[in-house]
Specification:
23 helices; 45% helix; two-stranded antiparallel sheet
């Protein structure tokens, strides 16, 4: 029940009039109220990651969700009658979650209704009850979704729904069934971790096999030894989801750090273990290009025993050493104050080691470059200090130098040849789109023109057959 206590931001009436201890006794005796259960579901469904306002206001909307078709702006979902969902009823709310349909338009599947649609009625009702208690935000997001033609024709989503929405099957084991519900429905993990085809439909045969999202790798989370969760224990997965860190060698960053911060760290231990058990049970898929484990087997992992305070002494010696030059000096000056000259980090202070870091051992250096360039936001991970964004201080060639250095020094690579062009491509990704999407507007106008020409030709034929006949008295 501790996970439910931490959910906020609206405390139930009982919590406001009793001491926390007395309220906890009541909750443990009677079970969570519908509103408390709805708050927990909102966390499990990770609503806040997308709908948080730019100023941190809960559910105020305005965050742009990057898609290959353009940015889709998350709306205000507070109970504001004018700007949010205050004029919805439960049936409207259910239609949003199940069918991607609001009272006045179809939604784009950036809102993961393709996953939420399997929520049972009682969970939808509890989530609805909680959303009614959220403080209304009486303003619209500053931006709004404005996709180019023909993607701005929302009725086209009916076609996408017909192609993409299908029924799920559930494991028989109760723990695995609960894990599947949290992964496949509430957590909608496949929205990021399953690649999509040319119509942006998740590929079932690549379920949780890894994809790229917002310029980051959403990794393979099947039980593969190389590139997946093969060398993770269920408890390691639970630790990662609770704190954003596991086994000293895995740290969440980018979009996943947001998921940990806003969602998974609030889940109770039983649910975290259920997620881990389910992920260890799904079919294994390989990670292309990854020929060795990203996370070493437990018996092969080194122990990190950096003495407290020794980093300062090591840095002083390294900076005074005229032999430490070039990229090694760049590393010492830029990274060693937290991660150590030898990459062992400072575990007691939550500075992660770089030696055998999963991010550094990955064959695809995308996430490593992203972390160096963009850092990790403050308070996104349990007790961890912020990782500063270095993009403003370092050039692309310097970021490439650092990435190559840590990969060869700490990641087990014999060589690494990232160049400035690679860094630029990672930080400014351009997605290759199928022909029919890239030229969708042109194709749509051609189709419209053909339809108009066809209608004109049909009209001429009708007129020539009947109109002329009437005029000639036939």
């Amino acid at each position: 029940m501790v996970g439910i206590l931490a959910l906020g931001p609206v405390a139930p009436a009982a919590a406001q009039t009793q001491s926390e201890a007395a309220w906890l006794e009541t909750v443990e005796a009677e079970g969570p109220t519908e509103i408390e259960r709805g708050a927990y579901l909102a966390r499990a469904a990770d609503c806040m990651s997308c709908h948080i306002g730019p100023d941190g206001t809960a559910y105020a909307g305005g965050k742009p969700i990057e898609t290959p078709l353009g940015d889709i702006v998350a709306p205000n979902i507070t109970p504001s009658d004018e700007y949010g969902i205050g004029d919805y009823d439960l049936a409207d709310f259910r239609a949003v979650l199940r069918d991607g349909r609001s009272p006045d338009h179809m939604l784009y599947p950036a809102m993961p209704y393709a996953y939420y649609r399997d929520m049972p009625d009682e969970d939808i009702a509890a989530l609805w009850a909680y959303m009614q208690t959220v403080e209304p935000v009486e303003r619209a997001p500053e931006a709004e979704t404005d996709l180019p033609f023909p993607f701005n024709v929302r009725l086209s989503m009916r076609v996408w729904n017909a192609l993409a929405l299908d029924d799920r099957t559930w494991p028989q084991d109760p723990q695995l069934a609960r894990g599947a519900y949290l992964v496949d429905v509430l957590g909608h993990c496949g929205a990021c971790h399953t690649p999509r085809n040319g119509l942006m439909i998740p590929q079932d045969d690549q379920y949780l096999g890894g994809a790229k999202i917002r310029g980051w790798i959403a990794p393979n989370i099947t039980p593969a030894d190389n590139g997946g969760l093969g060398h993770w224990e269920v408890a390691d997965i639970a630790d990662y989801l609770r704190t954003g860190q596991a086994m000293d060698v895995v740290q969440a960053a980018g979009p996943m750090a947001e998921v940990v911060h806003f969602s998974t760290r609030h889940l109770d231990d039983d649910d975290l273990m259920a997620i881990g058990a389910y992920l260890k049970s799904v079919p294994t898929l390989p990670t292309p290009g990854q020929e060795r484990p990203i996370v070493l087997p437990a018996a092969e992992r080194p122990e990190y025993a950096h003495e407290f305070g020794s980093i300062r002494e090591d840095m002083t010696r390294a900076l005074a050493d005229d032999g430490v030059t070039g990229t090694a000096r760049l590393y010492v000056e830029t990274c060693a104050s937290c991660h150590g000259v030898d990459g062992q980090g400072q575990a007691p202070a939550y500075y992660p080691p770089l030696q055998d870091s999963a991010t550094i051992r990955r064959a695809d250096a995308t996430n490593l470059v992203q972390v160096i360039a963009n850092g990790v936001q403050h308070e996104m991970l349990y007790r961890a200090p912020p990782m500063p964004a270095l993009r403003g201080d370092l050039t692309d060639p310097q970021i490439a130098e650092l990435a190559n250095y840590v990969r060869t020094e700490f990641g087990g690579f014999e060589t690494s040849d990232l160049a400035a062009e690679d860094v630029n491509a990672i930080l400014n990704p351009v997605q290759d789109l199928p022909f029919y999407i890239e030229y969708a507007a042109t194709l749509a106008w051609i189709a419209i023109a053909l339809v108009l020409i066809g209608l004109a030709a049909l009209g001429w034929l009708v007129w020539s057959r009947y109109g002329r006949g009437e005029r000639s008295g036939a």
